[in-house]
Structure formats: C-alpha cells, structure tokens
Amino acid sequence: MPGIERFDLDGAVAYARELAALRVRSVLLFGIPAAKDERASSSYDDDGIVQRTIRAIRSAAPDVLVMADCCCCEYTSHGHCGVLDAHGGVENDATVELLCRIALSYARAGADVIAPSDMMDGRVAAIRTALDGDGASDVAIMAYSAKYASAFYGPFRDAAGSAPQFGDRRGYQMDPPNAREALREIALDIEQGADIVMVKPGMPYLDVLRAARDRFDVPLAVYNVSGEYAMLKAAARNGWLDGERAVDELLTAFVRAGADIVITYFAREYAARHA
Questions:
Q1: Within a domain: residue 44?
Q2: Does a structural domain hold residue 171?
Q3: Tens digits of per-residue pLDDT, 219-251?
Q4: Could you tell me if 98 and 40 are in contact, meaning their C-beta atoms sit under 8 angstroms apart?
C-alpha cells in the first residue's frame, strides 16, 4: 500500500520514535515470523520478532505505549487464527490456551496492552486470568470484540502472508449483516475483563460503533483497516477525490460515531499534516 511498509526491528523502533515526535504515542505491533507451522509455535517464542521489538521500543522510546496483537494467523502455515482439529476446523479451547501463552510472552517482554484479535469464545477471561496469575495485572486487554468477516482485510493478509490456505474465517468472525450479535460480544468481553473493546472494520460498521458507544461506558476503539486505506488512497491517486480532506473527514467520522481510539494506517500522514 502507498506509504506503508513492513519493518525489521530497527526500522520499527525508528518508526515508533518518529511517530512519538509527531505526538502519536502508541503503536500496535504485528509480527511476521521467520518460519510458520501448523500450531503457530513461533508466536510465543520469547526471542520472537514481536517480543524483541516490544523490548526495543520500550528501551528506545519509553513514552510510547506498546500494544501487541495476539493471534495465530501470522504464525500458522494454514493461515487460520488457531489450532485446527482433525476435520480442519479451528479448535476453540486449544486456541485459547495458545493465546494465553502468546499474551504472557508479550507481557513479559514489556507490552502495555494485549490485543486478542482471534474471536475465540472465552479468550478474554482466560488471558486476564493468565496475566493476573503471572503478576501482570497492570497489563490491559484491548479485545477485538466485534470483528467482522470482512472483504476489507485483503492488503494486510497479503503483506503478512496470513490468508487462509483453505476455507475462510466466517466460522469464528462475525456475519456482516448482524449488528445485535456485536453488542452481545462486546458485553461478554467487558464482563470477562476487557479494558478496551473494538469494532473492526471501521467505515462499513459506523452504525455498530455508534450503537456500542450508546450502550457501553468503556474505552471504545475502531480499526480503520487496510482495505479501507487502500480504497481511499487509490481514489485519491486517480484524482477522484481530495485525499487529504477525505482522510480528515473519515477520521472525524470515527470520533463522531463514538470512538475513543482510532487505529489507522493514516496516523503518520494525518499527524504530520496537523503537527
């Protein structure tokens, strides 16, 4: 995507420091491992790329809040978000156990926020229990609570090599026409101990974001995903709209709909223009 790149460890640290200078003082890390396998074993490696990057950013930019995405899809050879059963389906409970191992490894590396994006049932409660039992009660959880099975994830999946090798993720991500289920999922995550809840994607789900804001008095995040970024950038490059005005309008819409936190690929661009 234009203006977006993958980083090695040093590049990620430099980027975090650049963002901090622009007053963007939080980052959300995703990792691409050197090797993948069926059980995502590299995801909880204490010397893994995300774990090393957390430590490096904490050392080089201590004022930056470090969030770490907690999922298996970048680490599995099959591209699904968890451990597969004998029939090729994702096994919920085994995946939750794996997510706890990942979360603990991130917390021990120094992450401020663990962000489970897998959509397994019960994972927030399990991660909270694991963190508290390991002395990491001050590490927050930002749950991808209403994460839809969307067409807008394509560019990220290409960059991370995380597209499912068979089937799809509709068995554990949410059905796009269903708004009421999103509110039930958010309520469950809050009950299980989520400190922040999220709606993902952003643009097609502003109604869900607004409904969540009206119902829940907790920090609310929205994820402006890769396909949304790519769509707007393509239109601007073709001269079909004023890109800068469109970005300003888009990000304002997220906040107007109720978001306290906006996760977006436009962060550096927007912050630089408004510095």
A1: yes
A2: yes
A3: 999 999 999 999 999 999 999 999 999 999 999
A4: yes
Q: How would you label 9-40 residue by residue, b for 16+ Cβ within 10 Å and e otherwise?
A: eeebbebbeebbebebebbbbbbebeebeebb
According to DSSP, the β-strands at 113-116 and 140-147 are: parallel
Residue 178 — very low, low, confident or very high, per pLDDT cuts 50/70/90?
very high
Range of the domain at 189: 9-273
| Catalytic site residue from 123, 200, 213, 233 | 200
Q: What is the CATH number of the domain that holds 69?
A: 3.20.20.70
As for how many domains the chain has, the answer is 1
Q: What's the predicted TM-score (pTM) here?
A: 0.93
Q: Is residue 79 pLDDT above 70, yes or no?
A: no
Q: For residue 4, is it within any domain?
A: no
Q: Hey, what are 224's tokens?
A: 């402006």
**Are the CB atoms for 93 and 126 separated by under 8 Å?**
no
| 147: annotated active-site residue | yes
Listed in sequence order, the residues at least 6 apart from 226 whose beta carbon sits closer than 8 Å to its beta carbon are 1, 152, 153, 154, 155, 156, 159, 265
Catalytic residue among 123, 128, 147, 169: 147
* Phi, psi (rounded to 5 degrees) for 26: -150, 145
Mean pLDDT, the chain, whole residue set: 92
Distance CA 92, CA 179 (A): 23
Residue 148: inside a domain, yes or no?
Answer: yes
pLDDT at 41: 82
What phi and psi, each to the nearest 5 degrees, are found at residue 190?
-65, -45
CB 106 within 8 Å of CB 54: yes
